[in-house]
From TrEMBL:
Organismal lineage: Eukaryota, Metazoa, Chordata, Craniata, Vertebrata
Species, as recorded: Seriola lalandi dorsalis
Protein name stated in the entry: Meteorin-like protein
PANTHER family named in the record: METEORIN-LIKE PROTEIN
Domain Netrin module non-TIMP type residues, every copy: 177-251
Record keywords: Disulfide bond, Hormone, Secreted, Signal
């Protein structure tokens, strides 16, 4: 008779029976190899990743795998998530599709993966079907990518070529200060136009919050920080005088701008909401 622990591990052991594979201890990442899969080239393995972010690495791919992104939550909000995938620049050997009830839609061709661009889609669009490109020699072929689960709104805005650039509403601005990955007060020092986005160099005078270290301190005795925030190219951001309140999200280690009102405008909005008792959270404005 199987113990409860062995029973829970049995599905993973069966998934790894055909070829070498290994989950991270938290089941956020997966690494597999097709070297022992050649005799079963028609088998399709199921991979289950259950975190909000992680990675996949498939060495010497043969046959196909289906990657199921299933967050460990039963919240209705889980159905409104987007999946963002960023392939490694040396990823090759497969084509990546979206599989919804057996119907495939091409997401990334093999030759597109080397660009390392982020691609987002709704979690409702299905699992990832990763199919090896048939070759006699599979050596030096590795498919690798990072993934993140984000809200539908963030997924669409941060990485879509058609990302909107409209100013935030008052309600969105107040909520962004409470919920975004970074909130900082500072000024714009430089704007550089890159291939598909603008890179905004900022100097921060007051750092309220940062999820990861996107802003770097100027030193123990210097209470300033510097960093770079990305924006879609079509937003036409320019350097401006005065102070701003920068908010936004961090995707694959990069900061993306969300709401960025002038600080004096934010102060007026915040104090009005404070008097009306409609602030979603407290912010130290002293």
């Amino acid at each position: 008779m199987l113990t409860p622990m062995l029973a829970s591990l049995l599905p993973l052991l069966l998934l790894c029976r055909i070829s070498f594979c290994q989950y991270s201890s938290d089941q956020c990442s997966w690494k597999g190899s097709g070297l022992t899969h050649e005799g079963h080239a028609r088998d399709v393995e199921q991979v289950y990743l259950r975190c909000s972010q992680g990675s996949l690495e498939w060495l010497y791919p043969t046959g196909a795998i289906i990657v199921n992104l299933r967050p460990n939550t039963v919240s209705p909000a889980a159905a409104r998530l987007s999946v963002c995938v960023k392939p490694s620049t040396d990823s090759s050997g497969t084509n990546i599709y979206l599989d919804r009830n057996g119907k495939l839609r091409l997401l990334l061709r093999e030759q597109d993966q080397a660009q390392g661009k982020v691609h987002c889609f709704s979690i409702q669009e299905g699992a990832l079907f990763i199919e090896a490109v048939a070759r006699m020699d599979i050596s030096r072929r590795i498919t690798a990518f990072q993934y993140e689960l984000v809200s539908d709104r963030l997924g669409a805005e941060a990485h879509s070529l058609g990302a909107p650039c409209q100013p935030c509403s008052d309600a969105e601005m107040l909520l962004a200060v409470c919920t975004n990955d970074f909130v900082a007060r500072g000024s714009i020092k430089k704007v550089e136009q890159e291939e598909e986005h603008s890179s905004v160099t900022v100097q921060i005078s007051h750092l309220y919050r940062q999820k990861t270290r996107v802003f770097v301190s100027g030193g123990v005795r210097v209470r300033t920080w510097t960093g770079h925030i990305k924006m879609p190219l079509q937003c036409g951001v320019r350097s401006g005088e005065g102070e701003f309140l920068f908010t936004g999200t961090v995707r694959f280690g990069e900061a993306w701008m969300g709401c960025a009102p002038r600080y004096k405008d934010f102060l007026r909005l915040y104090h009005d909401a404070q008097q009306q008792g409609t602030n979603p959270c407290h912010v130290d404005t002293d």
